[in-house]
Structures are given as C-alpha cells and as structure tokens.
Amino acid sequence: MKLRHIAILLAAGIGAGCSTSPAPQSGETADLVLYNGKIVTVDASFSIAQAVAIRGERFIAVGANDAVRATGGPNTKQIDLNGRTVIPGLIDGHLHNAGGGPGVDLSRARSMAELLAAVEARAKSTPPGELIVSNADWHEAQLREKRLPHRTELDRVAPGNPVVLVRGGHEFIVNSAALARWNITRETKSPPGGEIGHDPDGSLNGELVDTARSLVKLPPPPKLTPEALEAQMKLLNAVGLTGVRIPGGFQFGPDVIGPYRMFQQLKAQGRLTMRVNYLMRIYDFSSVEKVKATIASWNVRPDEGDEWLRIGGMKTLVDGGFEGGHMREPYAEPYGRGGGFKGIQVVPPSQYIPVVRELNRLGWRVATHAVGDAAVDEVLDAYQAANAERSIAGKRWTIEHYFIARPDQFPTVKALGIAVSAQDHLYLAAPSMAKYWGRARADQVTPVRTFLEQGFLVAGGTDSPVIPYNPFWAMYHFITRDTISDGVYGANQRIAREDALRLFTINNARLTLEENVKGSIENGKLADLVVLSADYLGVPEKQIESIKPVATMIGGRFVYTDPSAGLQ
Fold first, then answer.
1. How many CA atoms lie within 13 A of 130 on its CB side?
2. Which of the four pLDDT bands, split at 50, 70 and 90, describes residue 566?
C-alpha cells in the first residue's frame, strides 16, 4: 500500500476503527480515562471514538483505546465503559426551571376527573376563602379529554375558595370565586395584549390569557433559595443536562435579577452543577426610557461571565402561546370567531421596534418569543430596523419557538444570521394546536427539517416547565414527529438522529457563541459528557424516548451517577 493511502486511512481513524485526535501536549498526564466505549464526539465529522482522556476540566485525548490509555500515569483513574455509548453533555436552549412548587400538582393528572380531584383534595384541606393556586407544569393535552377545565367545574370542587390554575407561562384558569375576588365580570374588557375567555352565550369560561392574567393578583412565589436551585440542577443533571439557557428569569415573573445573583453566589461557592447562560428580560415596553432605567438598575453588562455562568442576551416577546400565537390567518372555528380572531399581539410594533433598536445600541443580543407567523413578521421588521443602524449579522439574535414559518420570511432570517431556538411543544400539545389552528397548520409546527435545509442555526430545548425537561423526549419527537397522544404530525419534518443530537449539543454551544469551548468531545474542550443506558444511534426509534443517563460529567467531574451502573 502506498504511504499516501496509509496516511489517509490513519487520518480517518480506519486503522483503529474509530476517530483520532491530536496527541496531548508533552507532559500532559490524564487524571481520568474512559475507555472501551462508543464515544459519539459530535465533531465536524461526527466521528466515533473508543476512549477519552481528561485532565482537569478539559479533554486532552480522544481516539482509540490504546493510544488514549497511554496518556495515563500511575495516579490516573481508568474506567471501563463496557461498550456503553457516550455523548457530549446535553444543553437545553430554552428552559425556565424544572417545574414543581408548592401549588397543586397537576403534572400527573391524565384525565379531567384526576385534575379536578387534585383541586378538590387541596380545597378540603384549605380554609374557606383562602386562595388555591396550581403549579404551572401541566397542559390540557396530557388529559384524556384534551381540554381545559371550565370555570363551573372548578366551582363544583372548590366552591368556597378562589382557584387559579396556572397553565404554563401564558394562561390562568379561574373559578367564580376568583372572578368575584378580583371583580372580573362579563362586561370587563380584555386588556391590550390579552384575552378574557367567554362562552358563546357571553358568560365567562374562566380563561385569562397573556396580559389578562394581570387582572389577578397572585401572592409572590416562595423565596428562592440556593438549596432550591441546587435541587433543580440535580434533577436536570439526572437527565443528562450539563447546560441550560434560561430565557428571562428562573421563575415566571418580573424578578429576573434575583435568580441571577443567586447563581452568581453558587458559582462563587463552587456549588454549580450546571453551566448557565442567563437571559435578562424586558416586561414593560411602554417607553424606551423605562427600558433603559430598568437595565441600569440591574447593574449587569451584556455577555458578562465565563463558561459557568454568563449573561446571554435580552429576552423579549410579541405574542402569546398555544392559545394566543399571532397568526396571518384566523384561528380554526370556533376559536376564529367567524374569521375575526388571529391571536394576540402582546406587544405592538410601535412599542417593540423602538425597544429592540435601543437594545442593539446598548450592545444587547435579542431573543424574541414569537409563535405565530404574523408575530415572526413583527420580529423580522424590528431586527431589520436594528440592523440598519448597527449590524446584527453574526451576533446570533434569535427567534424563540418559531412555530409557524413561511418561506417568504427565510431570506431575511438567513441574511441577518438569525438563529432558531426550537422546542418540542408539539410532542405534548399537538391536540390543542390542531384544535386552535387546524390540523394542516398544526402538522407543520416547528418545522426543524425545513429550518435545517435552509441552513439556519437551530438549537434545541424544551421550554420546561411548559413541556417536561427530558431532552431524550425532545430528540425522539424531532426524529419521529410522534406525539404523546395523537400520533405523528408532519412526517415531512423528521430529522436524522445525528441532527437531533447536534441540536442539543454543538448547536446550543453555537447559539451562545461558545462552540470553541463546549458542545462536542474534542481535545481542549470542556469535559462535559453523558454516559448512556443504551446506544442512541443504534436502538429502535421508540427506545430513544426511554434512554437514561447512567452518568453525567461536567468539567471532568461526575455530577450524577446511577449507583447500579457499576462505573468504578
């Protein structure tokens, strides 16, 4: 064989049956070697290796067993993976928190009867007249009936208590006692950017959407503690997450600086077990001066921080969620109200565009919640206006969610280098989307394959607690377009397993401008990885949903291990 051909084979790793990396620098002895595995590197070639060596917080060698094990010394710990698959640490690009809380837990309800029983049980243990509030981590699509509870149903199980069911980040469902407490009647006008729900006869159904939620004054959430943040991080570590991008506060609510300061405290104390990219958030768009004053009060700088904790930009929004996404075309009947309802424009262009332009002047990267195609139009108009003053190309401004996409939007997205932060809402909420928007529109919700074919940067996430935080559920959905309760939606938008894994690793690193330090298993990068219970690339598709980590590592340190895994 000619020397040139031998060199080509060795460079490709064919001789060793796996990928190779450059040898570690002279004198670098590994602290830890993981060998005899299937190391899915997610490098530019999507190489597969057998072993990886780690020194301190970084990878120093990736390749064949013998070559990598040779980086060890007498004090190096060497762990036999016994053929297990290893992937880069997973990153959720849009996660508020892991859910839970002191309210009524509806996350396990699978029928209307179970939901109402949970509310009734809380009412029986609550003094008359005292407020009952649910946690936010549930959705009507998880119920057999695929609908929200009605005001009158809540009246029946909790007649003596005001009840507020918090559904995700965009809607409350309340009973008559709650409506009476806050003096909301059938004559009350919906506020701009919100909707008070009515039955066909004009009576209130109990739904308060987007800004209409402000008519209800809930008590502040329990005081956030470092211990609560640590507990949440441990839950996320256990599903393989080594990084999260938090879009505008760890809790739904106006306090965005408090949780950030607490993350800073944990970092200073060495207690972080998660890399956090934290976005600040604007709630009041009424004037540019108010926005500037709010930002000044935080005393933070754009992009401040390091690989553990970094300010990642500014979260804004223009429309609602499933029930209020702003569309070009009316909602399906009866929600379209005879063609008159196209969703909710929460922030009008007259307020949104000046704020976005000012954020750009101040050096902030902008990430905007936009569900409907009309909402995306508004975002693109604002981003173009900002770009006309100061280029945003290459800064990876984002559209968060981008449920409904139109081809005439793609040239602008591409020209400005806008990234898409995509989540698996359809996996859980497909029946609701079909109900609100019609099946044809719901079939093409979050068209990840189309985005990738357009060459867009697409980063994956879950929007937890709106959708459960398990990244393997999200990857399974993007690969199959299967849903929890309603079969496959939009099979034409299926993507390959390799692409789904990129969404939750290197693409999220690119989204936060950190692809040179994390997101793949390569020499010199941060040693973030996950050891899996099954071969992600090889198991039948349905089994991807059930994959679990047996170990999660961040910066060369295991932050989660399954005691039964036998990794010694």
1. 8
2. confident
DSSP annotation of 104 reads: B
Nearest to 321 by CA among 458, 213, 479, 198: 213
pLDDT reported for residue 568: 61
Amino acid at 7: A
Residue 198 in contact with residue 240, Cβ under 8 Å?
no
Counting beta carbons within 10 angstroms of the beta carbon of residue 302, is it exposed (0 to 12), middle (13 to 18) or buried (19 or more)? middle
Q: What phi-psi label fits residue 394: left (phi over 0), alpha (psi between -120 and 50 degrees) or beta? A: left
Give me the DSSP letters along 308-353.
SEEEEEEEEE-B-STTT---SSPPSTTTTTTTT----BSS-HHHHH
Structure tokens at 376: 């995306």
Q: Are 216 and 182 in contact (CB under 8 A)?
A: yes
Tens-digit pLDDT profile for residues 348-378: 999 999 999 999 999 999 999 999 999 999 9
State the CB neighbour count (10 A cutoff) for residue 113. 12
d(C-alpha 261, C-alpha 243), whole Å: 18
Q: Which of 71, 78, 63 is nearest to 27 (CA)?
A: 71
Contact, 23 vs 61, CB < 8 A?
yes
Q: Which residues, including other chains, have CB under 8 Å from residue 171's CB and lie 6 or more apart?
A: 207, 208, 209, 210, 213, 321, 323
Q: Which two tokens stand for residue 109?
A: 């309800």
Question: For residue 437, which amino acid is it?
Answer: W
Write out the two tokens for 487. 């079969």
For residue 402, how many other CB atoms are within 10 A of its CB? 31
The residue among 212, 270, 263 whose CA lies nearest residue 559 is 270
Asked if 42 and 88 count as a contact pair (C-beta separation under 8 A), the reply is: yes
Structure tokens at 37: 């595995």
Tokens of 345: 């424009």
Q: How far apart are CA 554 and CA 551, in angstroms?
A: 10
Phi-psi region of 270 (alpha: psi -120 to 50; beta: other; left: phi over 0): left
Q: Which residues neighbour 465 within 8 Å (Cβ) at sequence distance 6 or greater?
A: 96, 97, 98, 99, 100, 135, 136, 137, 168
- The closest alpha carbon to 335, from 412, 437, 255, belongs to 437
244 CB contacts (<8 Å, ≥6 apart)? Answer: 91, 92, 95, 236, 274, 275, 276, 277
Secondary element (H or E) of residue 368: strand 366-370
Segment 266-306, tens digit of pLDDT: 999 999 999 999 999 999 999 999 999 999 999 999 999 99
| 400, 368 contact by CB (below 8 A) | yes
pTM of the model: 0.90
Encoded tokens for 160: 């003596």
Token pair, residue 265, equals 């405290």
Query: For 204-218, what is each residue's pLDDT tens digit?
Result: 999 999 999 999 999
> Smallest Cα–Cα separation from 104: which of 82, 83, 123, 127?
123
Query: Across the chain, which distance is largest between two alpha carbons, in Å?
Result: 88
Residue 148 carries which DSSP code? P
DSSP per-residue string spanning 106-174: -TT--SHHHHHHHHHHHHHTS-TT--EEB-S---GGGSTT-SPPPHHHHHHH-TTS-EEEEETTTEEEE
Separation between Cα atoms, residue 400 and residue 90, nearest integer Å: 19
- The answer to whether the beta carbons of residues 172 and 213 sit under 8 Å apart is yes
For the record, the structure tokens of 298 come out as: 């935080």
> Which among 210, 201, 148, 566 is positioned nearest to 369, based on CA atoms?
210
